[in-house]
């Protein structure tokens, strides 16, 4: 009886894994289908060039501002890893990480939400203290 239960459990586990793989494969196919038009646009641009484009970044020079460099170097989580250039070519993954960190810096500068929230809370506390003082008087 134990062996039969174990065999049934193994079959169920296998069926679940197969179902997971099938659902993941369906998602992949849907994503590729949704990106088909974008892929065709990029291919047409690259093919229609008089001089074919090679996206290797050899002619690109990136200047990283000091604030961004400091933020990345002092980041304890190490989100931005790798060199900007590898074998003379631009490392696009590192560039994307760098741009993401730059956007986070801009968000922090233009929307210091915690500070705004803190000021709002301080205002509420001050108004409640005032009301409490008036009630006591």
If you had to describe this structure to a student in words, what would you say it looks like?
One of its GO terms (molecular function) is microtubule binding. This is HAUS6 protein. InterPro entries: HAUS_6. This protein has 137 residues and is mostly helical. The protein has 2 domains: 1-52; 66-136, no CATH class. The chain has helices at residues 2-34, 36-48, 66-73, 92-110, 113-136, and strands at 85-86, 89-90. Strands 1-2 form a two-stranded antiparallel sheet. The radius of gyration is 28 Å and the shape is flat. The model has no long low-confidence stretch (mean pLDDT 77).
Short description:
This protein is an all-alpha fold and 137 residues long. The chain is built from 5 helices and 2 strands.
What's the order of the H and E elements? Answer: HHHEEHH
Rounded mean pLDDT is 77
Estimate the helix proportion, in percent.
over 70%
- The share of residues in extended strands comes to under 5%
Please compute the radius of gyration using only Cα atoms.
Answer: 28 Å
Q: How many β-strand runs? A: 2
Strand order, main sheet: write it out.
Answer: 1-2
């Amino acid at each position: 009886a134990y062996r039969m239960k174990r065999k049934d459990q193994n079959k169920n586990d296998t069926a679940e894994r197969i179902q997971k793989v099938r659902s993941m494969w369906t998602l992949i196919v849907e994503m590729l289908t949704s990106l088909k038009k974008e892929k065709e646009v990029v291919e047409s641009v690259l093919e229609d060039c008089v001089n074919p484009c090679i996206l290797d970044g050899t002619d690109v020079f990136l200047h990283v501002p000091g604030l961004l460099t400091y933020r990345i170097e002092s980041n304890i989580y190490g989100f931005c890893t790798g060199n900007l250039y590898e074998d003379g070519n631009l490392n696009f993954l590192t560039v994307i990480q760098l741009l993401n960190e730059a956007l986070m810096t801009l968000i922090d500068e233009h929307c210091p939400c915690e500070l705004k929230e803190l000021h709002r809370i301080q205002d509420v506390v001050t108004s409640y203290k005032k009301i409490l003082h008036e009630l006591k008087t």
